[in-house]
Amino acid sequence: MTEPNAARPVVTRIAPSPTGYMHIGTARTALFNWLFARRHGGQFLLRIEDTDRARSTPEATAAILRGFEWLGLDYDGEAVSQFARRDRHAEVARAMLAGGTAYKCFSTQEEIAAFRETAKAEGRSTLFLSPWRDAAEASHPDAPYAIRLKAPRDGQTVIADRVQGDVTIRNATLDDMILLRSDGTPTYMLAVVVDDHDMGVTHVIRGDDHLNNAARQIHVYQAMGWEVPVWAHIPLIHGPDGKKLSKRHGATGVEEYAAMGYPAAAMRNYLARLGWSHGDDELFDDAQARAWFDLDGIGKSPARLDFKKLDSVSSWHIARMDDTELLAEIARFRALTGQAPLSQAQHDGLLAAMYCLKDRARTLPDLLEKAQFIMTDRPIERDERSQAALTDVSRGILSELTTQLQNGSWSRDTLEATLTTAAEAHGLKFGQLAQPLRAALAGRTATPSVYDMMLVIGRDETIARLTEAAAPAR
What we know:
CATH topology of the largest domain: Rossmann fold
Number of domains: 4
Largest sheet: 3 strands, parallel
Strand content: 5-15%
CATH class of the largest domain: Alpha Beta
Number of helices: 19
Helix content: 40-55%
Number of strands: 12
Shape: elongated
Strand order of the largest sheet: 1-2-3
CATH architecture of the largest domain: 3-Layer(aba) Sandwich
Distance between the termini: 73 Å
C-alpha cells in the first residue's frame, strides 16, 4: 500500500446534498473516508453541499446529521455549508478570470440550446465551444456574462485513481465549463474544488459516478496552481439483482436500517465489507476496521446488498456486544421507533437476561421478541399458538407446579429436577410440558428456555404467572 505523504496529514471529507434522506451509499462512502482518516491519524470533515436552494431543506440536513450520529461516525470541527461559502467561490472564479485561465462568455442559454439542436439534427457533436474564448476585450458587449474555465483543448487529462487505476480523458471531449453563472452564482463544479482546497482535503474518496467530474476539477486545480488531491472513486452499491440500488430492493436510507433494529456496529462492519475486503475477514470490530482499512482493498466492481449477510453480521455483533452497550442500543431503537422508554424493571430484567437473549438474535426486535417475558406485565397477553397450549390438562399441571415450586432453592438444578419429575409423572416428554410453561410465562411459543425465564423473573413472579395461567378458561 502506498502510504500518505507524512508531510501532508490526511484530510478526508464527505459532502452529501441535503435533498432527502441519508442514502446507504452515502453512509458507506462516509465510513470509508472516516476509516481512512482515523487509520492515518488525520481529519474527517463534513460539508453539506446545499447550493441547490430549490431542493435543499433543513429537514434533510437534520436527517444527515442524525445518520452520522446513529452510525457513530464522528467528524472533526463543524459541518460546513457550501452555500455559505458562495462569495469565496465567486472570488476564485474572478481570480481565474484575472489570471487568464478563465474568460467571459456572453452566449445566452437560447443561443447554446439552438446550437445543440442544430448540431444534433446535422449529426455533429453537440459539445458547445464558446466563440468568446479568445475574443478581444474590446469586442465584449455590455451584457450579462458567465465566467468559463479556459480548459486545455489538446492532449489528455489523466486521473490517477487509487481504485480505478489511471483513467485517461481526451481534452477535446470536454467543454469549457461554467464557473460563475451570469447571475453571479457559482457552479457546483467550481464550489467543490474551492471547498476541498480550502478545507485541506488530501484524499477525495467518493462514488465512481463522479469519476468524469475529476478531469474537469483537475483543470481548476491546475489553473489555480493548487495541489491535486489523491482520487479514489468507489463503485456504487447495487441490489441483489445487480441493478443500481433503489427503493424496489428495500430500504435505501440509513434511518430505515436503524428503525429495523440493526445495531450501528453491525452496520459499520457490513458497510465496510460492501466493496472492501481484508483477506477473508468478514466479521470484525471497529478497532480492526481502523487498523486494516486501506484504499487498495476497495474493489472495482459494484458491491451487492445482501440482507441475509447483513442479518448474519448483525447477529454476530449482538451476540458479542457488551450488555450495557446493547441496552443503550435498545433504548435508542425504542426512542427512534416511537416506543415508550424502558421502565426500571424492564431495564433490570433485560440486563439480567442478556445471557439468554443475545444468541441467534438477528436484530434488536428479534431480541425484544425473545424478551417478551420481561417486557410484559400481568395479566399476560398470549398469542394464538400459546393460548392453544393451555388446555384443561396443562392447566392442571401448572396448578400442581405452583405448589411444588413454593419451596426449595431457586436454582437451575432444582428447577430442572422439579419440572422433569412433573413431566414424567404425567407421562409427558419435557417439550410437551415446556409449551404451556412458555404460554404461562411469556405468552409466546418462541422464548428462551423455561429455566432461564424462571430464573430471571424469580420465584414469586413465576408462581404468580403460573397461577394466572392455571385459572379456568373464561
